[in-house]
């Protein structure tokens, strides 16, 4: 979740305009990033699907990013966004811990079934007394009903899954379009009002004054972002399920990283500027690869939404 700084510079060029638009879309992606997962956890009243290790490492990355921004005395906008990212992480982590503790307490509560177990054998004998009577055709009827249900179930899942997939794709596509529209409109408004101006194409000179400690924190932040998804990938593979995860959460992450990298590359391809931003580019590209792995897991294992719809 790194944000490019801007400053006074020359007149707007096509490359700078694209850099600004991509940077603004990346910013919008990060702002809305955690909302889908918060909604998914609330809808399921559970956070079993998401790895707390994933969120914790990501939070450490945001904290080091904030510390580096403060140390380097970056512009107030960058610092404010870094603070926002940390608070957003804390909200999601708090929600996950709350649901994990709540559901763990429910699981530890004694079941009332043990109290009824004394009466169940008597009821079972009373029902079994009818097995040898003419009512035996009830068993055939019930087994026939089961076979009918099985035949129906063989056709229903595909229909339900197709409908659910269409709705999910439509929802995600509209969400992505909305984020891109908000980002592009935000950049246009900022440019028209003079809030955003092109950055001079000499990024190496400005970055040379960055404190060494701030640079170290930047590298540490990039490493955390790159390694955060590994626990989630392992968890998905171990559970062989992506149930409880929001696909839109990872789509927005991919969009944010891709547009962030594009914003840097469209600004300049000069060697000094490229090397200065290389840690963040590596972090963004590496995270994109990890997101693609998670998308493959969604495809192979499923999210559990269509399954629950069929079972219902």
From TrEMBL:
Residues 137-153 have a biased composition (Basic residues). It catalyses: L-histidine(out) + L-arginine(in) = L-histidine(in) + L-arginine(out). It holds the Pfam family PQ-loop. The chain crosses the membrane at residues 20-39, 51-72, 78-101, 173-191, 211-228, 248-266, 278-298. GO terms for molecular function: basic amino acid transmembrane transporter activity. GO terms for cellular component: lytic vacuole membrane. Gene3D superfamilies: 1.20.1280.290. Keywords: Membrane, Transmembrane, Transmembrane helix. It is found in: Membrane. InterPro entries: LAAT-1, PQ-loop_rpt. It is a multi-pass membrane protein. Residues 109-153 are annotated as: Disordered. GO terms for biological process: vacuolar transmembrane transport. Belongs to the laat-1 family. This is PQ-loop-domain-containing protein. It comes from Bimuria novae-zelandiae CBS 107.79.
């Amino acid at each position: 979740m790194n944000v490019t700084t801007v400053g006074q510079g020359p007149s707007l060029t096509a490359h700078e305009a694209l850099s600004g638009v991509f940077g603004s879309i990346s910013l919008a992606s990060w702002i809305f990033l955690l909302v889908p997962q918060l909604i998914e956890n609330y809808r399921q009243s559970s956070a079993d699907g998401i790895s707390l290790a994933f969120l914790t490492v990501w939070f450490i990355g945001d904290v080091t990013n904030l510390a580096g921004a403060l140390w380097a005395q970056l512009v107030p906008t960058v610092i404010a966004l870094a603070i926002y990212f940390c608070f957003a992480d804390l909200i999601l982590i708090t929600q996950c811990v709350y649901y994990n503790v709540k559901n763990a307490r429910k699981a530890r509560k004694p079941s009332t079934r043990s109290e009824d177990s004394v009466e169940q054998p008597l009821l079972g004998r009373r029902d079994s007394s009818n097995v040898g009577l003419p009512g035996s055709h009830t068993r055939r009827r019930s087994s026939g009903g089961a076979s009918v249900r099985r035949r129906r179930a063989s056709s229903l899942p595909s229909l339900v899954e197709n409908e659910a997939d269409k709705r999910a794709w439509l929802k995600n596509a509209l969400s992505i379009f909305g984020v891109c529209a908000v980002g592009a409109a935000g950049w246009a408004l900022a440019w028209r009002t003079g809030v955003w101006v092109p950055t001079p194409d000499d990024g190496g000179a400005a970055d040379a004054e960055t404190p060494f400690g701030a640079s170290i924190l930047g590298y540490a932040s990039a490493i955390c972002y790159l390694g955060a998804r590994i626990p989630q990938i392992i968890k998905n593979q171990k559970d062989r399920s992506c149930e409880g995860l929001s696909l839109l959460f990872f789509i927005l992450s991919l969009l944010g990283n891709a547009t962030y990298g594009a914003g840097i590359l469209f600004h300049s391809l000069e060697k000094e500027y490229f090397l200065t931003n290389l840690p963040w580019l590596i972090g963004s590209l590496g995270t994109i690869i990890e997101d693609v792995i998670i998308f493959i897991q969604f495809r192979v294992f499923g999210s559990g939404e269509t399954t629950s719809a069929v079972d219902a």
